[in-house]
Amino acid sequence: MPKNLIIASTSTIHGSGYLEYLLPELETFYKNTDTIIFIPYARPGGISHDQYTDIASKAFKKIGKKIIGLHIFTDTIEAIENAEGIFTGGGNTFVLVNQLYKTNILPALRKKIFEGTPYLGTSAGSNICGLTMQTTNDMPITYPPSFKTIGALPFNINPHYLDPIKGSTHMGETRETRIKEFHAHNTIPVVGIREGSWLEVKNQTIQLKGTPTARIFEKGKAPYEIDTGSILDF
Amino acid sequence: MPKNLIIASTSTIHGSGYLEYLLPELETFYKNTDTIIFIPYARPGGISHDQYTDIASKAFKKIGKKIIGLHIFTDTIEAIENAEGIFTGGGNTFVLVNQLYKTNILPALRKKIFEGTPYLGTSAGSNICGLTMQTTNDMPITYPPSFKTIGALPFNINPHYLDPIKGSTHMGETRETRIKEFHAHNTIPVVGIREGSWLEVKNQTIQLKGTPTARIFEKGKAPYEIDTGSILDF
Description:
Oligomer: homodimer
Strand content of chain A: 15-25%
Helix content of chain A: 10-25%
CATH architecture of chain A: 3-Layer(aba) Sandwich
CATH superfamily of chain A: Class I glutamine amidotransferase (GATase) domain
Largest sheet of chain A: 7 strands, mixed
CATH class of chain A: Alpha Beta
């Protein structure tokens, strides 16, 4: 199956503008695409679909791409079917997944991704590329009909992966403990991608790109690190 | 309605044993109770119900109380109905709530709480005292039939409340941003209780106890702090 995805931990790295660190990559990625359909459903900080689409538009204007928010279409399934390129932004994964089910676009979105349409996800938009959204960091502020997601990857994502903070006296679970709890109930591997890195999916090949290493969690194994440039084939 | 609850942010504070900081309080709280029914369903770190019950037993033995795990009863509803005292431990709120629905004990648990049976909750066990579990920090590692919880409080809890870490370069949402996103979709007030504090519910009075202040989030208002000793009556 042809596939062409960039699955990023974060839209924004510290001290830099929205998508800025990814723009050189995105220029190549979307080279055959003038217009990108933006899925603004995750509504970071509760902003509106229009406000969110404006933010994405401004960033993509710098590389000469036109962004159209999916929310303005009457027939959103048709809009996905006709998309030359797709971008799903971050925010709250529960809100995003709920809206994807409500608008019934998941099958069309999955089909487009498996046909090789360039797809960029950041944070919540990356989470939905996994088998389920169950390793999101977000609060369950809405109740989606299911936690199942697109399954463009044979594992789950934990975006904004965070190492335990040295010297912290906080007793809340670390990210690693939370993923360990996930594996007490599920067998799906989890890839913790740190801010500044992304997974590049080209057909059957999944490669870690960007600066930091990633942390891999497989049920029954000790977690381990992989370097940037690594092919993920576990 | 008579009510008698301790709703704690955490079971354990840094550098101290399980429940240690709360034991003097619990000695008075459970003074008319020899035996406490322990709800171990949240399974912190994926440990078994038996293992978790052992941990709780050891702590309560220090104040002469006997702990019985709810999981050993054939008729769990009857066990709740007959309970002299109840304690729900922390762990994963999704796993806990899923099991509460699966065993069908929520109505009995609610009835007991509204009859004044002493109830202690820590972390996930505190979350379920709110109107919904939607301000948990946990990962959605199981899919519960609903996010509705006991509603012993007229608001939601965010346990292990965490202030933004000064100088952090991490771009993942802060706790405050997450709760703000909750209020983009919901009107329920949220009380962020920091580790080392708890809410004491005596009939209609809810009071903040312990050391740190708590942070209150009401939709459409700026978040604000309340001191220990404050009565929560918003």
